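Progress report, Aim 2. The chain analyzed during this reporting quarter is listed below.
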Amino acid sequence: MNSFCTIIDSNYIAFANVLYSSITEFDKEIKFNVLVTDAERANFPAVLNNNIQFYSVSELGDTAYARDIYNKYVATNSDHLRWALKPVFIGYLLENNFDKVIFLDPDIFFIGNYDFILNQLDYSSVLLTPHWNNINPLEFEDGLFSIMRNGMFNAGFIGAAKNGIPAMKWWAGMCHYKMDRQVELGIYDDQKYLDLLPVEFPGSGILRHQGCNLASWNIDTCKREIINGKLMINKIYEPVFIHFAKDTITNILNRNDELLKPYLDEYIQALQNENFDLLKNLDNLDHAKFNSSLYSIKHKLRLRTRLKRFLFRLAEKL
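Predicted structure tokens for the chain:
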């Protein structure tokens, strides 16, 4: 049996509901498990669908590092608590009835069929998704530095099969050991540890479908364009899911990533149906300013900068 899962604070129930709704567009019977880090089961909302299950941290029991991580981070950093519990929750689900588990950040939204992802876990113990940053310093220097600082893989998506349990236990141990952003130590929260998984656990696989995890960090390398009336990525891939992190939303609103705008509109409406106003609740996000002439100018300058870099590379080859 397969499962998708996410981890939230109790005030983000709306995100979990919208994520689940987007998943069920392609499989009405898929199981969806939600770990709520700041509440017990008695305080969870009523669940009318047998395919959704909510858990509290206390229910993870003796799962590797569950108590240690909770005790270490519960009073100091709620973000670190949620992030460090990812491998713990995945491991718990794999040890309790599920053969394949896919963890997703709650701000992810599916727009395409994902069966091939679950199929890849038939021969991968762990499944990672690259950021797909632009790593050519002549085009976008920050992209190279970002991947070196933050990690090759995005921790907003992790897939695992039962034979990936040892990898999840190892990752949980690393998250318990240290959760921080220390460039000099090569540490970036829970995420940078993922770079080591393909080395330490040879069964680890890479999700190379570039329609997965569309976000601000792959705006240049996963090129969006309309072909025959359909959104395509790099002329080959159909979009599967979008990671609506704050930077992704900002790039869509300022027209750097405008082909994703219809999906953002759909996502905003879905959250509104859950009584959550996304744009009002994002810190320091002023929706009105993205329609200003200033942002239009900035967008044009960005395109000109990319053109100049292209011409520079062309001149180098002459």
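The chain has a mean pLDDT of 87. The radius of gyration is 20 Å. These observations will guide the mutagenesis work planned for the next reporting period.
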